[in-house]
Amino acid sequence: MSFIQLIRSEIEGSLPKLVFVSAVGGLSNAAILAAINAGTGAIADSKSPSLWAVTLFIASLFLFIKSQLYVTITTSAEIEAIVHKIRVRLMDNIRRSELRAIEDIGRSNIVAPIASDPAVLTQAGILLCFSVQGLVLIFFVAIYVAYLSFVAFALSVLVVGIAAALFHTRNRRLAKETQEAAQRERRLFDRLSDFLDGFKEVRLNSARSADLFDDSVEVSRLAANVKIRSQTETFKQIVTTQAALYVLLGAVVFVASRFSDSLGGSSITQTTTALLFVIGACFGLVQSIPILLGANAAADRISQLEAALQATAATTTARNIKVSKRFDKIEMHDVMFRYVDKLSEAAFQVGPLNFILRPGELVFVTGGNGSGKSTFLKVLAGLYSPDSGNLMLDGMPVNNNTREVYRALMSAVFTDYHLFQRLYGIPESDQAEVGGLLTQFRLADKTEVSEGEFSTLELSGGQRKRLALIVSLLEKRPVLLLDEWTSDQDPDFRRKFYHELLPELMQAGATVVVITHDDRYLDEFHFPARRLRMDEGHFLETPSQENVR
Asked: What CATH number was assigned to the domain covering residues 324-548?
């Protein structure tokens, strides 16, 4: 999708009116030129400027000021409204999309169309209106030049036509390099994300740090080279166009005047002045081309992202769904999930899995790293859809029509959890309950909740996980999923988790699935629970460990 197509499809105001006022601005420019030329011609003939020339100048200036103000203010408001609408729509599509789709698209391909591309659209919107004004100005000045001298007009058409043909030929290559430059910059964003998200790992391993830095330097160098090539091509186009227009000016003065009797005296001055207006307008058009090309690329990225998100976005949202707090049975029947790493092309498969979860159960899932535990939990949560087999809720398949209802049963703290500053989705939290949980989790002296917002999230890793669990408990959903929750906790709080928190949850009727490596604590655990072990994507048959007492 091009930038103009995006504007036409998204604009809320009257696009024809905006174009018309832009055209009026260009026409008023041409009228100002005609009035000035009429005045200078009268002065050259030792006469006073006529009243109609003065009147035309004043009226044209008034129209120019009014049209410029309307165009700039209206365009700015319309473009920002379009940007806001696109951002909201993209964020809405993101929240309704599936986890697998978001992972496949990639963070950089999502962030750029929402964060940086709209700024390009804003800049291009104003330039587009000025470009319309420039085109109208060129059209009417061309008619004026033809009135002054047909030879000068014909020469202008010839030179400008040749320059436009050369410009169009090179413009295709420039558009391609602009797109490539944007792709390189997205790769650089990925490397920056590696530095920030993996900062601990980078500082811990000097070899990794050096390799990542070298790779980032190479990505930056390639991005710079592509940018240099595209900018070089842009500058060549600008210089070539400028030279062609100066050639036109020289040809009119030094060549056309020899073959046209009408180009003499004040006529050559008026024609030259008119062509100077054309040259200024052409310079503006040429200099706006790179920005408009960037806007085309930005509009295309936005369109592609929206199409990719809409392919998996649900048609309903959580606010439209009646949430049930009860269930009788959750089942997995021969569920399989396959994952292919985009970089290494390595395939990983979980399943076939057969699993039943009933209300009030406590299930421990153990196994080595890479055994499929976290993937199993995401399938159980309804975040990953099985490639084959069935996930069932109370005997009914969990599909696109029922997945949101199913997810409404779940609250979770995954290993890559995100802690929000506000208690989103929990509008009426009980302050006494929140205070009690903060005290129970030993966080009352670290943070507090005021008007639904935490006073601070500047906590240690273990404390942040405790806060994330508090948020999950405040959601009051029947099923709680915990993925390696105790991994960042000190031994004292691990013991508290297994000896106090879990038994309290079970006594309150909660259903909990815990992924853990804490075999020693499980051996000491005396509350009824099931214990399952995973290896290479399968549950191992361990009858002797089926119940932990």
From this structure: 3.40.50.300
The secondary structure of the chain in percent helix, strand, coil, rounded to multiples of 5, reads 65, 10, 25
Crossing angle (nearest 10°) for helices 206-251 and 266-310: 150
Average pLDDT score over residue span 367-387: 87
Q: How far apart are CA 199 and CA 217, in angstroms?
A: 17
Q: What is the pLDDT of residue 547?
A: 47
Residue with tokens 């500058």: 235
The mean per-residue pLDDT over the stretch 360-370 comes to 87
Opening angle at CA 513, ends 508 and 515, nearest 5? 135
The string of pLDDT tens digits covering residues 281-338 is 777 777 677 777 777 777 888 888 888 887 776 655 545 555 567 888 999 999 999 8
Homologous superfamily (CATH) of 3-310 is ABC transporter type 1, transmembrane domain (1.20.1560.10)
Burial class of residue 543 in the structure, from the number of CB atoms within 10 Å of its CB (0-12 exposed, 13-18 middle, 19+ buried): exposed
One-letter amino acid for residue 19 of the chain = V
Domain ranges of the chain: 3-310, 324-548
Asked if 237 and 289 touch (Cβ cutoff 8 Å), the reply is yes
Question: What long-range pairs does 217-224 form, CB within 8 A, spacing at least 24?
Answer: 219/184, 219/187, 219/188, 219/191, 220/188, 220/191, 222/184, 223/181, 223/184, 223/185, 223/187, 223/188
Q: Give the whole-angstrom CA distance, residue 95 versus residue 448.
A: 28
Higher pLDDT, 304 or 132: 304
Nearest to 379 by CA among 429, 334, 446, 312: 334
What's residue 546's pLDDT? 44
Question: Residue 163: enclosing H or E segment and its boundaries?
Answer: helix 150-197
Helix (H, G, I), strand (E, B) or coil at 49: coil
Nearest CA-CA partner of 354 in 387, 331, 377: 331
Q: Give mean pLDDT, residues 449-456.
A: 82
What is the percentage of the chain residues whose pLDDT exceeds 90? Answer: 4
Q: Structure tokens of 408?
A: 């409404």
d(Cα 110, Cα 305) in Å, to the nearest integer? 7
Q: In this predicted structure, which of 69-73, 506-510, 522-526 has the lowest mean pLDDT? A: 522-526
3-state secondary structure 232-276: HHHHHHHHHHHHHHHHHHHHHHHHHHHHCCCCCCHHHHHHHHHHH
Nearest CA among 136, 135, 167, 174 for reference residue 296: 174
As given in the structure block, the two tokens for residue 60 are 């044209």
Q: For the segment 2-29, what is each residue's pLDDT rounded down to a tens digit?
A: 777 777 777 776 777 777 887 787 788 7
The mean predicted confidence, pLDDT, of the chain is 77
Q: What pLDDT sits at residue 207?
A: 76
Q: Report the Cα 469 to chain-centroid distance in Å.
A: 30
Q: How many helices (H) and strands (E) does the chain have?
A: 18, 13
The yes-or-no verdict on residue 278 having pLDDT over 70 is yes
* 8 Å CB contact between 437 and 446: no
CA distance 510 to 349: 30
How far is CA 189 from each of CA 91, 112, 195, rounded to the nearest angstrom? 20, 9, 10
